[in-house]
Design brief:
The protein is 39% helix and 18% strand. The chain is of the alpha/beta class. Strands 3-2-1-4-5-6-9 form a seven-stranded parallel β-sheet, with helices on both faces. Strands 7-8 form a two-stranded parallel sheet. Helix 4 runs parallel beside helix 5. It is globular and about 45 Å long.
Length: 233
């Protein structure tokens, strides 16, 4: 069976690693982004979108179907977006629109990058919007939805000085911390690996089934991602 994947957020911290890993698992990789990802190979189909408000128009020519797995690593911060409304538009509206368009194409498996602190009752906008996005996509009732909730992401964050400071502090104390700690930071590459591994596990489980597995929502917390991607010496 020819395997296809479709990705948004492919140029972000996690997405850039995810694209490379998915290219090794899928026969066709569809990327929708404002600019080409760093990693490009022959199996990739790149669709440039200058404004995600036009995502529906772009999707009309995208060859997604029930054999396609969908991945979203799309996200921003209030500072980058410029306002509460602009932040919500990116992190909630665009993600939900993408999920609905995928569902209309028959996509059954959806993978969403969220946050450890997603909480609908949080006093922080970022955490509330992450939770709202999760709930909106859960309501679409995909055959299989996987939500990944990482802690602080390690990597080069453009325009995120506070996270950069946090990362520098973590590097000083990391030798003293166990990865079993719930708040232990995680590299973007390991989050991408956990996402790709989850997709491949579903594929292997369903490969010899006439029908997909029962509907399921899987939440992968930070601790589980660290365990999944731990490299043994």
């Amino acid at each position: 069976m020819q395997r296809k994947a479709i990705v948004i957020g492919a140029t972000g911290l996690v997405g850039q690693y995810l694209v490379k890993q998915l290219s090794e698992l899928y026969d066709t990789l569809i990327v929708i982004a404002r600019r080409p990802p760093r990693y490009i190979n022959a199996s990739m189909r790149f669709y440039q979108v200058n404004d995600f408000d036009n995502l529906t128009e772009i999707f009309a020519s995208v060859g997604a179907d029930r054999k396609t797995d969908a991945f979203s690593c799309l996200g921003t911060t209030k500072k980058q977006a410029g306002s509460d409304e602009a932040f919500r538009k990116v992190d909630h509206d665009y993600n939900v629109t993408f999920a609905k368009l995928c569902q209309d194409k028959g996509v059954e498996n959806f993978f969403l990058l969220s946050s450890m602190n997603a909480d609908i009752d949080s006093r922080f906008l970022y955490n509330r919007v992450k939770a709202e996005t999760e709930q909106s996509i859960i309501s679409l009732d995909f055959a299989h939805l996987v939500v990944l909730r990482p802690s602080l992401l390690l990597g080069k964050h453009k325009g995120r000085p506070l996270e950069s400071i946090g990362q520098k502090a973590f590097k000083l104390i990391s030798p003293l911390l166990s990865e079993s700690l719930p708040l232990h930071p995680i590299s973007a590459k390991r989050v991408a690996s956990a996402m790709a591994m989850s997709a491949h596990a579903i594929y292997e489980r369903n490969k010899y089934r006439a029908e997909p597995t029962l509907k399921k929502i899987e939440i992968i917390e930070n601790k589980q991602m660290l365990a999944m991607t731990r490299v043994k010496n």
